[in-house]
Amino acid sequence: MRKTAMIIYFAGSIRGGRNFQSVYQEIISLLQNYGLVLTEHIGRSDLNAAGEADISDNEIYQRDISWIKQADLIVAEVSNPSLGVGYELGLAESLGKNIICLYNQKSEFILSAMISGNNKFKVKTYQNINELQIVFKKIFDEIS
Ligand code: 6IA
User: CA-based angle 22:64:103, to the nearest 5?
Assistant: First the structure.
């Protein structure tokens, strides 16, 4: 059993498109039962594709890289293709992080083979948020 709270980095599309924003919010709430989610803002409804004016792209990049390095677990919602999420997953893989990718069956996009074909990623397909409760319970039981 871990003594300290698990640090979780949640990744989801921002400039790639915000179609799944409300799902991100629900996933983040579930993940908060298991640890500290560094990227709670990804679920915010007021965070649009343009992002925020008070932080530069370089500051976002530097901060997110440092958070990925700190994280014990990366959870990426990959139903909406995103260059940023793909980049984060590649980096996290090279750092040897535990990585879970969540793909919603309602997605209009077929998941990239670079994600579905990578055995280092645990890819979970889901239809609704209730299924994810069960998925998370199982995964966190395994890794804690
Ligand atoms: O290419 P995308 O924009 O879709 O990439 C999304 C991914 O990159 C997310 O998983 C984030 O971790 C990261 N990312 C991209 N833009 C931001 C961002 N924008 N803030 C935080 N992470 C970002 C500005 C808004 C923020 C300061 C509230």
Answer: 40
Q: What is the pLDDT of residues 34-63, one digit of tens each?
A: 999 999 999 999 887 666 567 899 999 999
Report pLDDT digits (tens) over 66-113.
999 999 999 999 999 999 999 999 999 999 999 999 999 999 999 999
Confidence band, pLDDT 50/70/90 cuts, at residue 115: very high
- Of all protein residues, whose CA lies closest to atom 1 belonging to ligand 1? 84
Residues with CB under 6 A from ligand 1: 11-16, 39, 41-42, 47, 51-52, 55, 60, 64, 82-85, 88
By alpha-carbon position, which residue is closest to atom 22 of ligand 1? 60
